[in-house]
Design brief:
Distance between the termini: 30 Å
Number of strands: 33
CATH topology of the largest domain: Immunoglobulin-like
Bound molecules: CU-O-CU linkage, copper (II) ion
CATH architecture of the largest domain: Sandwich
Strand order of the largest sheet: 12-9-14-19-16-17
Structural class: mainly beta
Pfam family, one: Cu-oxidase_3
Protein name: Multicopper oxidase family protein
Number of helices: 5
Keywords: Copper, Metal-binding, Oxidoreductase, Signal
Helix content: 10-25%
CATH superfamily of the largest domain: Cupredoxins -  blue copper proteins
Largest sheet: 6 strands, mixed
Length: about 500
């Protein structure tokens, strides 16, 4: 009921400030936001985005289903009964009109991760009301920037049950230097085969004193992540919804240039990704071009995306996504000729080669922030630990959060100060930031950045998208435990 009246309020608010004033009195209970000023600012910002006049419509149904992971058939949640979901694709400036039907037994939402879209379509409450069970809602927005994105609910642990899908935004003016595209969506999977995500979360929260009980990691370490790989050991790691023994195969021809769009949709797992027998040219971080760099592998925290180019060799080549600091891997195959699959235990030598990490990459000149002195400094101190499972930002859980604030048009520097012994993939909604590299060089443009234990990472962004935006750790369990706050315009 609340969700419905809020939504009715919201659609009225979008029609204009005068209407908003009326709706505000009519709607019960009246939500605190958006107010008339914010609705006007959202409409003004939307008008400034590019618009092609074309609308791309799609329908998504979030529902429980029997999902075939390539052997095990599990009862869990997915969009349109498919793990890794249907692909959503449009051009920059197209209006996406995505009608989401909620076939779950609880409210849900769809958050368009990484897209700097209008705040009231972000798919995270309170900016966008949740969709009540049995109801439907049409998200309408445009993306101002091309790139590799993805979508998932912003409600509890739903993403970890299998609700996610890739979202690609193309720039027709820049088709890219490749012959084919391979979308690679990575996940850690337990629902229906191990304890379900809620049982894991309850175990993490109640275990308090034990560091080695189930679900635990038993002391695995990752040099790249600066300590523990994660909090949870998963039964399976998936590429495009398939377990390692039943890998998805991508068919291409030798010599073709392939663009891999790699998306980490996992809850608690970073992946180190390599393609056996191939050097990768890393071209994009979180959708944005970088100065291309050759690497043997890339590291992705939860929520991150990397685009890489490879020139296909002749044969059968495993793509391996090592669960970083854990025991296990996801895998898929590139098939361009004769050859056999070396099997699930095979680990490409490339995994131990040069690993591209965000801190050593540089944004392409076309997407660097204009030089400007910062107007505002905001800080997010990250704390918490396995004892009590009390993940916090600035000392507070989300239920008690004090919003970070910026003024419209400011250049803000946001510093993540990690005072915990765990790494955190920190994600800001509605904006992309430039990572301020510790060596002073220009960093990559991103919306999610890995912050290693006891380290700080500073990022700069322009406050050009008014609204109430989530800022959180993209570890699903840390987020649910409270490692989230908001960034608000004042
Ligand atoms: Cu992937 Cu708050 O988002
Ligand atoms: Cu975290």
């Amino acid at each position: 009921m609340v969700a419905l009246s809020r939504r009715r309020f919201l659609s009225a608010a979008l029609a204009g400030a005068a209407l908003t004033a009326c709706a505000r009195h009519d709607a019960a209970p009246a939500p605190a936001r958006p107010d008339a000023g914010l609705a006007e600012a959202i409409a003004r910002t939307e008008a400034a985005r590019p618009h092609t006049g074309r609308t791309v419509t799609a329908r998504l149904r979030a529902a429980p289903g029997d999902l075939d992971l390539g052997g095990p058939v599990v009862r869990s949640l997915a969009y349109d009964d498919r793990v890794a979901g249907p692909l959503l694709r449009a051009n920059v400036g197209d209006e996406l009109a995505v009608t989401v039907t909620n076939g779950l037994d609880h409210p849900t939402s769809v958050h368009w991760h990484g897209i700097a879209l209008r705040n009231d379509m972000d798919g995270a409450a309170p900016a966008t009301p949740e969709i009540a069970a049995g109801a439907a809602f049409t998200y309408r927005f445009t993306s101002p920037v091309p790139g590799t994105y993805w979508a998932h609910p912003h409600s509890g642990l739903d993403t970890d049950y299998g609700l996610y899908l890739p979202v690609l935004i193309d720039d027709p003016a820049e088709p890219g230097d490749h012959d084919a595209e391979w979308i690679v969506v990575l996940d850690d999977w337990t629902a229906g085969v191990g304890p379900d995500p809620h049982q894991i979360f309850d175990g993490l929260r109640s275990r308090r004193m034990s560091m080695h009980g189930m679900p635990g990691m038993g002391g695995a370490r990752s040099a790249l992540l600066g300590g523990d790989g994660g909090d949870v050991s998963y039964p399976y790691y998936l590429v495009n919804g398939r377990i390692p023994s039943a890998p998805t195969a991508f068919n291409a021809k030798p010599g073709q240039r392939l663009r891999l769009r790699v998306i980490n949709a996992a809850a608690d797992t970073a992946f180190r990704v390599a393609l056996a027998g191939h050097v990768m040219t890393v071209t994009h971080t979180d959708g944005f071009p970088i100065e291309p760099v050759d690497a043997d592998a890339v590291l992705l925290g939860m929520g991150e995306r990397y685009d890489v180019l490879v020139t296909a060799a002749d044969g059968v080549f495993p793509l391996a996504a090592l669960a970083e600091g854990k025991d296990g891997a996801a895998r898929a195959l590139l098939r361009t000729g004769a050859g056999s699959d070396p099997g699930t235990d095979f680990r490409p030598a490339e995994l131990a080669g040069r690993v591209a990490t965000a801190g050593a990459l540089t944004a392409a000149a076309s997407v660097r922030l204009a030089p400007k002195a910062p107007d505002a400094d905001v800080q997010a101190v990250l704390s918490g630990g396995m004892m009590g499972y009390d993940w916090r930002i600035n000392g507070r859980p989300f239920t008690d959060a004090v919003p970070l604030t910026v003024h419209e048009n400011e250049r803000a520097v946001l510093t993540f100060v990690n005072q915990s012994m765990m790494w955190h993939p920190m994600h800001l909604h509605g904006h992309t930031f430039e990572v301020l590299r510790s060596d002073g060089a220009t960093g990559p443009r991103k919306d999610t950045v890995i912050v290693a234990p006891m380290q700080s990472v500073a990022v700069a962004f322009d406050a050009d998208n008014p609204g109430v935006w989530m800022l959180h750790c993209h570890n699903g369990y840390h987020m649910d435990a409270g490692m989230m706050t908001t960034l608000e315009y004042v």
